[in-house]
């Protein structure tokens, strides 16, 4: 994905949306809950516009205030949506895995996005040209309806994340972030560094290192060589603040199928 370089240390210097390689048959079963929830008559109209691509770690999808060329429906990848401030600080305001999509700007208003999106966890996404998506999503039907529900769920996630970042302890926020990522991946291990998690939470790396050390001492997670393993899911939920449960409850209420803990939210 070669594009304008994003001025943040954890993004690759590439151009969003242009270097991914198509790798999956267009007729393959869909893991993404938004797409797989569509009745077949609606899905038939959507499938020809989908291109399955593999995203590498930190690969940018679009930059702030730049035109969005594609929207993305994650299959196995997890996407971070990040806001950068004028002083160079960054913080994750939301994320999406196979329960959702990235590029809501083209459903809600169109035009450029005020935020940045990039691959948090590498993997497969189904992408669609933004102009085609706008036409399909604006027409009355199942896609429009499911996107309305997802928009509400995602905005609630953003609001809960803002409240969490303002009020909760770093260890609680680390646990929340780990749980949300664990929900979206297969297995118990995924790539993660203290530096990256600190950037996502908008805190100092030292604070994350202390929090992760405590979680490891309590045998909740195991962290080494750029990877984290969730050892005790139940204890991790207990270590989290209320925000993980609040966001999950909203997604379960609003979306076609519930988020499945540690099942990659498979249909």
Which short descriptors sum up this protein?
267 residues; alpha+beta; Arc Repressor Mutant, subunit A; 4-stranded antiparallel beta sheet; 3-stranded antiparallel beta sheet; 10 strands; 40% helix; disordered N terminus; disordered C terminus
Give a brief outline of the structure.
The chain has 267 residues and is α+β, with helices and mostly antiparallel strands. 40% of the residues lie in helices and 19% in strands. The protein has a four-stranded antiparallel sheet with strand order 2-6-4-5. Strands 1-7-3 form a three-stranded antiparallel sheet.
Question: Strands, helices and their partners?
Answer:
Layout: H1 33-36, H2 40-46, E1 51-55, E2 60-62, E3 70-74, E4 78-84, E5 90-96, H3 105-108, E6 116-121, E7 123-129, H4 130-138, H5 142-167, H6 170-184, E8 189-191, H7 194-201, H8 205-217, E9 221-224, E10 227-230, H9 233-239, H10 242-254
Antiparallel strand pairs: 1-7, 2-6, 3-7, 4-5, 4-6, 8-10, 9-10
Write structural notes for this entry:
This protein has 267 residues and is of the alpha+beta class. The chain has a domain at 163-254: Arc Repressor Mutant, subunit A. 40% of the residues lie in helices and 19% in strands. The protein contains ten helices and ten strands. It has helices at residues 33-36, 40-46, 105-108, 130-138, 142-167, 170-184, 194-201, 205-217, 233-239, 242-254, and strands at residues 51-55, 60-62, 70-74, 78-84, 90-96, 116-121, 123-129, 189-191, 221-224, 227-230. The strands form three sheets. It has a four-stranded antiparallel sheet with strand order 2-6-4-5. Strands 1-7-3 form a three-stranded antiparallel sheet. Strand 9 and strand 10 form a beta hairpin. It is globular and about 50 Å long.
């Amino acid at each position: 994905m070669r594009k304008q370089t994003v001025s943040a240390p954890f993004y690759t210097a590439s151009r969003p949306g242009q270097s991914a390689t198509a790798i999956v048959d267009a007729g393959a079963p869909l893991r993404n809950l938004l797409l797989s929830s569509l009745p077949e008559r609606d899905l038939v109209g959507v499938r020809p516009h989908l291109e399955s691509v593999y995203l590498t770690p930190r690969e940018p999808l679009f930059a702030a205030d730049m035109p969005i060329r594609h929207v993305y429906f994650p299959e196995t990848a997890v996407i971070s949506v990040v806001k950068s401030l004028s002083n160079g600080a960054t913080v994750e305001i939301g994320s999406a895995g196979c329960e959702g999509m990235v590029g809501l700007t083209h459903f809600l208003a169109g035009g450029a996005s005020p935020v940045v999106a990039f691959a948090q966890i590498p993997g497969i996404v189904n992408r669609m040209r933004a102009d085609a998506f706008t036409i399909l999503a604006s027409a009355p039907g199942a896609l429009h309806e499911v996107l309305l529900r997802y928009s509400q769920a995602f905005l609630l996630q953003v609001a809960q994340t803002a409240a969490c970042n303002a009020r909760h302890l770093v260890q609680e926020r680390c646990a929340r972030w780990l749980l949300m990522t664990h929900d979206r991946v297969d297995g118990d291990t995924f790539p993660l560094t203290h530096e990256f998690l600190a950037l996502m939470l908008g805190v100092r790396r030292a604070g994350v290192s202390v929090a992760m050390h405590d979680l490891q001492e309590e045998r909740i997670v195991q962290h080494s060589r750029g990877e984290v393993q969730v050892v005790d899911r139940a204890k991790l939920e207990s270590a989290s603040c209320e925000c993980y449960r609040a966001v999950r409850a909203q997604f379960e209420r609003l979306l076609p199928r519930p988020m499945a803990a540690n099942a990659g939210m498979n249909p």
